[in-house]
């Protein structure tokens, strides 16, 4: 599906953008470089765009590369975070 | 230019002409000279602190500290200096000390001095200006651009410090009250800015609080209010000479373009992380026109400030993923170095590819209608939500209930693992025992919760949880903590319900149970082993043959079978007295033959682990030809030898 090296960001308007993760900030705004639109190129207005800034509030999912994430550890970290927030 | 006076007039509206009219309701007499003195002293502390903390090297040696105002200075205190037009500044000026920060205003005008003293005296009320954040206004040096409109671009010239000389011109720079972080001047301002009065002590934020707070504000959390006690330890940790230096990795001066993947200064990255980043380093991309606006020192200073916010006293708690991830990488590398081959592959995420079954036609045309129905299109691709069918509600609710329970038990399990981690050999006996008790209590809690899910359900103990992948993972992580008989119980549940488990394992998470179960099997006695094998082979509707057939078709089932047989062989060849029950040996040999028949005939799946003593086992009971056939069959699947030759 996607041939990018890094992440795929799926937005709430169903647009999926593939690209290299450049930076993230406290609002989870995302900057991607070298982007391409995945799936059918139904969104031709993105063809010439190389880098983009995505506002955090419009992101639905961020798909991370499988071998760079330890999902079990991530789940544990999320649970611990939830535990701490409750306290 | 406007004259200074005029400009001052603009900036200070509503100064009462008559100084005595100045009254803010709290009584001008509140501000006695003692308070003034206290404030003067505080200022000094602040200045010293700022120097230490940020070491900005703004360079100017502060002018000799002003003489403290004589305590017996009677009024005129504040009222008089506040009237800007009044000629007699000088008599009131004399006793008032320069209150500005020496760094910024070494030679500020006398009028400013007097005025600022007056402003200071009305602190905590914020009544002077419309904007409560503004406490003082000083004049700064005008920029080149404001002086000469022909100048469009100053290029890469360094902008001189604006506060140095006698000021002329109309540029004013607002200086925030120094109790607010001086860094505030450089950072973005997020409204609303909460003015901090020096009269109100402020608690230094704990790392937890500041972690949340920095989302809204940009306050460096540990900037202390001078009136609040700051633990000396914290001071030493972070500020001044002890402020973490930039790592050698970061070299702002070497190339004008900052590759953004560099960690900033003062980052304490895990060495593994640094290595990974350096591998991923990219070439600089080109000339950056903004690279010389700040000196390297300034950049370093700012980055250091931001990094200070990230320091925490308990990184394992607040940055759990990062710490644990690199710890695991380290231990794995250490293992490799010691020559221990890790037999397991690193866990890989396998997301099953789910085919999108319901597609939708973006443009719908209803027969007989004049137009097209507004459905999501490529320009507005929002999909309609597909509703949940009502008849599936019950099963969903049950599933949700189970998942909910599993999550809660996971929390307890995490606590157990954390407590286990804290058990070091350095603990005292009593401490150790206390932790062990704590662990046992929690483990038993989880166990009992897993066992009795719903008394009405006839599904059996543990099974509802084992059918869910999250539940399998929970059980797998719980097993090492369980006592032998509890663990055996779970093993028997697994083997008894093996066909069900195998068939309802869409995510293929069953293998996660294999390693802990293998350990349990390794501790079985012979008769226990036979019992488990019986579970495996005598299921309700199936013959032994059929059970085995099922098991052999499944990776987990086959591996489990191998593990059981291997354990049997180990027991038999160890010479330890077996104490078998009646009929055990018969069951044993019977199963061996059945298994051998299975293995030699049907095509096998690749097991998770092929024990090395299986062929020895078969050699005991079977003829050479059968053994040979078995061997080739088993080896063809795994690609490795069944017997180390």
UniProtKB/TrEMBL annotation, chain A:
**Main location as per UniProt:** nucleus
This protein's record includes keyword Protein transport: no
Limits of the Sm domain = 1-68
Could you mention a single GO BP entry for this protein?
A: mRNA splicing, via spliceosome
This protein's source sits in the domain of life called Eukaryota
The molecular function GO annotations come to: RNA binding
Record's subcellular location = Nucleus
Its job: Binds specifically to the 3'-terminal U-tract of U6 snRNA.
Oligomer and partners: Component of the precatalytic spliceosome (spliceosome B complex). Component of the U4/U6-U5 tri-snRNP complex, a building block of the precatalytic spliceosome (spliceosome B complex). The U4/U6-U5 tri-snRNP complex is composed of the U4, U6 and U5 snRNAs and at least PRPF3, PRPF4, PRPF6, PRPF8, PRPF31, SNRNP200, TXNL4A, SNRNP40, SNRPB, SNRPD1, SNRPD2, SNRPD3, SNRPE, SNRPF, SNRPG, DDX23, CD2BP2, PPIH, SNU13, EFTUD2, SART1 and USP39, plus LSM2, LSM3, LSM4, LSM5, LSM6, LSM7 and LSM8.
Q: What is this protein called?
A: U6 snRNA-associated Sm-like protein LSm2
Source organism per UniProt: Neolamprologus brichardi (Fairy cichlid)
Automatic annotation (TrEMBL), chain B:
Which parts of the chain are coiled coil?
none
Compartments (UniProt record): Cytoplasm; Nucleus
User: Main location per UniProt?
Assistant: cytoplasm
Q: Locations of Pro residues compositional bias?
A: 61-81
Keyword annotations of the record: Cytoplasm, Nucleus, RNA-binding
Task: State the protein's name.
Answer: PAT1 homolog 2
Please report the organism this UniProt entry assigns to the protein.
Neolamprologus brichardi (Fairy cichlid)
**Ranges where the record places region Disordered:** 1-127
**Is the Hydrolase keyword given for this protein?**
no
Give the record's GO biological process terms. deadenylation-dependent decapping of nuclear-transcribed mRNA; P-body assembly
**Domain mRNA decay factor PAT1 as annotated: residue spans:** 365-501
């Amino acid at each position: 599906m996607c041939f990018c090296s890094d992440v795929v960001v799926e937005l709430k308007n169903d647009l999926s953008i593939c690209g290299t993760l450049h930076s993230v900030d406290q609002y989870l705004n995302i900057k991607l470089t070298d982007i391409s639109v995945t799936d059918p190129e139904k969104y031709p207005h993105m063809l010439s765009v190389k880098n983009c800034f995505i506002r955090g509030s419009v992101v639905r999912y961020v798909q991370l590369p499988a071998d760079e994430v330890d999902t079990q550890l991530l789940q544990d970290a999320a649970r611990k975070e939830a535990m701490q927030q409750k306290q | 230019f406007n004259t200074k006076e005029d400009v001052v007039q603009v900036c200070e509206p509503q100064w009462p002409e008559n100084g005595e009219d100045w009254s803010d309701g709290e009584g001008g007499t509140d501000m006695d000279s003692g308070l003034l003195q206290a404030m003067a002293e505080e200022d000094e502390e602040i200045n010293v602190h700022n120097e230490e903390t940020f070491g900005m090297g703004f360079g100017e040696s502060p002018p000799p500290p002003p003489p403290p105002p004589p305590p017996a200075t009677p009024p005129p205190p504040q009222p008089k200096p506040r009237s800007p037009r009044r000629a007699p500044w000088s008599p009131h000026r004399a006793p008032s000390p320069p209150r500005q920060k020496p760094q910024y205003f070494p030679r500020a005008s006398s009028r400013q001095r007097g005025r600022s003293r007056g402003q200071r005296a009305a602190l905590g009320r914020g009544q002077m200006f419309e904007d409560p954040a503004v406490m003082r206004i000083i004049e700064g040096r005008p920029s080149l651009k404001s002086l000469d409109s022909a100048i469009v671009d100053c290029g890469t010239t360094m902008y001189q410090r604006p506060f140095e000389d006698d000021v002329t011109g109309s540029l004013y720079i607002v200086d925030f009250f120094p109790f607010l972080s001086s860094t505030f001047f450089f950072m973005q301002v997020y409204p609303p800015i909460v003015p901090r009065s020096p009269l109100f002590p402020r608690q230094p934020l704990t790392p937890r609080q500041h972690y949340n707070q920095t989302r809204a504000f940009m306050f460096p959390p540990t900037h202390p209010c001078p009136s609040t006690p700051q633990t000396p330890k914290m001071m030493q940790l972070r500020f001044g000479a002890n402020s973490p230096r930039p790592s050698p990795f970061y070299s702002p001066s070497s190339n004008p373009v900052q590759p953004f993947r560099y960690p900033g200064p003062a980052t304490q990255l895990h060495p593994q992380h640094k290595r990974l980043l350096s591998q991923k380093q990219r070439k600089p991309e080109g000339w950056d026109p903004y690279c010389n606006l700040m000196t390297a020192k300034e950049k370093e200073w700012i980055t250091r400030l931001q990094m200070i916010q990230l320091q925490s006293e308990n990184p394992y708690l607040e940055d759990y993923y990062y710490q644990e991830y690199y710890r695991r990488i380290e231990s794995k590398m250490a293992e490799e170095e010691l020559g221990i081959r890790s037999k397991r592959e690193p866990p890989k995420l396998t997301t099953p590819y789910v085919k999108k079954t319901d597609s939708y036609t973006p443009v719908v045309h209803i027969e007989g209608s004049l137009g097209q129905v507004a459905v999501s299109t490529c320009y507005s691709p929002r999909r309609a939500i597909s509703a949940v069918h009502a008849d599936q509600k019950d099963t969903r609710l049950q599933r949700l209930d189970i998942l909910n329970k599993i999550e809660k038990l996971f929390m307890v399990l995490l606590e157990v693992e954390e407590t286990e981690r804290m058990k070091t050999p350095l603990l005292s006996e009593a401490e150790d025992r206390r932790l062990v008790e704590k662990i046992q209590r929690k483990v038993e809690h989880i166990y009992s919760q897993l066992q009795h899910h719903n008394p009405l359900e006839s599904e059996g103990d543990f099974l509802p949880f084992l059918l869910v992948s999250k539940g399998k993972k929970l059980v797998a992580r719980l097993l090492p903590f369980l006592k032998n008989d509890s663990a055996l119980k779970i093993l028997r549940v697994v083997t008894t319900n093996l066909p069900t488990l195998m068939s309802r394992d869409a995510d293929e998470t069953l293998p996660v149970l294999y390693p802990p179960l293998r350990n349990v099997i390794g501790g079985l006695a012979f008769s226990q082993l036979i019992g488990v094998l019986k579970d495996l082979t005598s299921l309700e509707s199936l013959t032994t043959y059929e059970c085995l057939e099922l098991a052999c078709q499944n990776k987990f089932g086959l591996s489990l079978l191998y593990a059981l047989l291997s354990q049997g062989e180990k027991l038999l060849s160890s010479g330890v007295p077996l104490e078998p029950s009646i009929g055990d040996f018969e069951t044993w040999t019977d199963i061996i033959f059945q298994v051998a028949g299975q293995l030699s005939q049907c095509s096998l799946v690749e097991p998770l682990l092929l024990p090395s003593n299986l062929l020895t086992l078969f050699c005991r009971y079977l003829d050479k030809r059968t053994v040979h056939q078995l061997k080739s069959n088993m080896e063809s699947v795994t690609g490795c030898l069944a017997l180390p030759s």
